[in-house]
Amino acid sequence: MEVAGQDPLDDVQEMMEIPKLEVTKQNLDYLNSDLEKDLQRLDEANQVLLRKIQEKEEAIQSLEGETALSLAQANEREELNHIASEKEETLRNLESETAKLEKSNKILSRNVVELQKKISRRHKNDGLNKETLKQMLAELKVRLQKSTESCTKQEKELLKIESDYQSLHQLCEDQAHYIKKYQEILRQMEKEKEVMLLEKEVFKAQNNSSQIVKPGSILVETIQSNMEKTIIKKQKRIFWYRHFRCLVFMVMIFIRLLGYALFHLQYINPDLLVDALPMVMSRDTLKRLREVLFPFLTLEVEEVLPH
C-alpha cells in the first residue's frame, strides 16, 4: 500500500520537472545560437583585419621596391655628380689650355710682325732673295692655320662639355626631386607601420580575449584606458616639469637681483639705505626704527676699558 501511494507522487514530480527541463533546454539553445553568431562576427572581423594586413604588406613591399629604385637613383646621382666634377675639371683644364694657346697665338702674331719688319729691313738693306721670304711666310701661315684649327677644335670640345654639364645639372635636379619624393614615401611608410603595429596589437588582444574571456567581448576598452592613462601621465609630467622650470628660473632671477643689490650696497653706495629711508619713511617711523635698532648697533666697551 505504501508503494502504491508513493508512485503517483513521483510521477507528478517528474511531470512538473519535464517543462522546466524543456525551458532550460530552450534557453541553452538560444545561448548557443547567440554564441555561434558572436563567433561568426569575430571570424568576419578577423578576416577583414587579415585582408587589411595583407593589403598593407603589399603596399609596404611596393614601397620597399620604390625605395630600392630611389636608392639606385641616388647612387646614379652620386656617379653623375662625380662625372660632373670630372667634366668641370676638364673644362677648367681646357680653359687654361685655350688661354695658353691664345697667348701663344698673340706671341706668334707678334713674332710674325717682327719677322715681317726684319724681312723688310733686310730686303731694304741687304737685298735678300724673295724665295727665302716666301718660304718664311709660308711656314708662318702654316703655323697660324694649325693654331686656328686647334682653337676651333678646343671650342667644339668646350661646347660639348657645356652641353654635357647642362644635361648633368638637369639630372641632378631630377634626382633632388626624386629624393624629396623618397623622403615623403619614407614618412608615409613610418606612419603606416605604426598603424600596422596598432592593428596587430588589437588583433592579438582580440585573439587573447576570444581565448580567455567570453566570446563577443573585446579588450579595446582596456587598451584605450591604458593609452589614456599613459597620455595623462605624460601630460602631468610635462605640467610639473614646466612649473618646476619656471620656479627655478624665478629663483635664479631673485638670487641674481639679490647679489646685485648686495654688491651695490657693499662696494658702490654703502649709504644707500641711510639716504633712501628718510625719503620713504616718515620721521615717526624713523625714530621707532632708531629706538629698536640702537641697542643692537651700539658697542658695549665698558668691560674692555680700564677702570
Automatic annotation (TrEMBL):
This is Transmembrane and coiled-coil domain-containing protein 5B-like. Pfam families: TMCO5. It is found in: Membrane. It comes from the Eukaryota. The chain crosses the membrane at residues 244-263. The gene is LOC112833362. InterPro entries: SMCO2/5. It is a single-pass membrane protein. Its main location: membrane. It comes from Callorhinus ursinus. Residues 25-206 form a coiled coil. Keywords: Coiled coil, Membrane, Transmembrane, Transmembrane helix. One of its GO terms (cellular component) is membrane. The keyword Transmembrane applies.
